[in-house]
Amino acid sequence: MKIERARVIVTCPGRNFVTLKIETDQGVYGIGDATLNGRELAVVSYLEEHVIPCLIGSDPRRIEDIWQFLYRGAYWRRGPVTMRAIAAVDVALWDIKAKMAGMPLYQLLGGRSRDGVMVYGHASGEDIEATVDAVGHYIDMGYKAIRAQTGVPGVKDAYGVGRGKLYYEPADAALPSVTGWDTSKALNYVPKLFAKLRDTYGFDHHLLHDGHHRYTPIEAATLGKRLEPFQLFWLEDCTPAENQEAFRLVRQHTTTPLAVGEIFNTIWDAKDLIENQLIDYIRATIVGAGGVTHLRRIADLASLYQVRTGCHGATDLSPVTMGTALHFDTWVPNFGVQEYMRHSEETDAVFPHDYHFADGLLYCGETPGHGVDIDEDLAAKYPYKRAYLPVARLEDGTMWNW
Ligand code: GCO
Ligand code: MG
């Protein structure tokens, strides 16, 4: 069996997606997601110029060997562009293998560990009152877990606020838009949101919050402490994680559970955090961290330390990643939660899929493979549109972490 052809499909049904389609000499094909929000074309070029030529003629059943070839063989390891390209190949090959086996992907991984996958949705509002209403809306939709982000008075376009939309879409401009940040304002305001949420809805739902890399370790520790009475499911990306040691300080000061990893590419980004039990949830996902083959290694390491998974699932991860992650989540023994921001109708139409939402859980389907396809004719109707993520600046103009 041979790989005969591989193509990259770029489409923008409301937002950009990069998809790799691998076709075999036996008529079976597989697809993988390679979207890197705001830097999409770098991955397109990496795949087209440097990966696809190596794939043609190789045996698509040799998933592990092809992974190692692309990782070790490049000499230049890791990084978001490389690892997304590898992920796209890996996912397309798992799709092919599962189709050939006539099984949904989760069966090949080891079978079902649970019936459905608990997901969390994104509630947000311009201020506390609006965010409390938005959380109520998610409760009405049946969500068991809800992330809450509020605008902060005096901060321009605070992170995570949908501005009237059910979900927010940050990559919104042909050049990066400038948002604001003020740590002390957020430190005073965010705990008030969670106090109000618990006051209004009680403690029956899981609440989550994303710090989006904004706080220094000691500020993150302060936030974690202030949030303790409201029993969050997790506080995410409370401080940047390039220095994994930074989490030790946060950990020593608060029992609020910590999650990190949506920008991690490999097990090496998470190794110290996991082994030192500095986090509770690892957020690496299929497209970001080298596909099913590598994410499984991360999850297995995490399970030794009782760290659970919480796969990233923002709208910039295509339905191909969502579908694959759901098979992964259905199998992985140390599952925590899955992020689910929902895609637009246009996106869902370009990527027909068999997963569905019911009562706060997502269910992967039983179609052989990962259960997500691409309608190429429809995809062709939405040409690529350059869109950047925003940047963040402090009041005095200093660049900050967005
Ligand atoms: C999340 C993330 C996203 C990112 C986005 C960037 O927790 O869902 O922080 O919202 O900002 O994926 O492309
Ligand atoms: Mg996040």
Report on the architecture of this protein:
- Catalyzes the dehydration of D-mannonate. Has no detectable activity with a panel of 70 other acid sugars (in vitro).
- This is D-mannonate dehydratase.
- Pfam families: MR_MLE_C (PF13378), MR_MLE_N (PF02746).
- The chain is of the alpha/beta class and 402 residues long.
- It has 2 domains: 3-103, 2-Layer Sandwich (Enolase-like, domain 1), CATH 3.30.390; 109-367, Enolase-like C-terminal domain (TIM Barrel, Alpha-Beta Barrel), CATH 3.20.20.
- Helices cover 37% and strands 17% of the residues.
- The protein has helices at residues 40-55, 63-72, 80-101, 105-109, 128-140, 183-201, 217-227, 246-253, 267-275, 291-304, 319-331, 345-350, 376-379, and strands at 3-11, 17-24, 29-33, 117-125, 145-150, 178-181, 206-210, 234-236, 258-260, 281-282, 308-309, 338-339, 356-358, 361-363, 391-394, 399-400.
- Strands 4, 5, 7, 8, 9, 10, 11, 12, 13 and 14 form a 10-stranded mixed beta sheet that branches. It has a 3-stranded antiparallel beta sheet with strand order 1-2-3.
- Helix 1 packs across helix 3 and helix 3 crosses helix 10 (291-304).
The ligands bound in this entry are:
D-gluconic acid, magnesium ion
Mean pLDDT: 97
The SS-based structural class is: alpha/beta
What gap, in angstroms, lies between the N and C termini? Answer: 46 Å
Write the layout of secondary structure elements.
Elements: E1 3-11, E2 17-24, E3 29-33, H1 40-55, H2 63-72, H3 80-101, H4 105-109, E4 117-125, H5 128-140, E5 145-150, E6 178-181, H6 183-201, E7 206-210, H7 217-227, E8 234-236, H8 246-253, E9 258-260, H9 267-275, E10 281-282, H10 291-304, E11 308-309, H11 319-331, E12 338-339, H12 345-350, E13 356-358, E14 361-363, H13 376-379, E15 391-394, E16 399-400
Parallel strand pairs: 4-5, 4-12, 5-7, 6-15, 7-8, 8-9, 9-10, 10-11
Antiparallel strand pairs: 1-2, 2-3, 4-14, 13-14, 15-16
Bound molecules: D-gluconic acid (GCO) and magnesium ion.
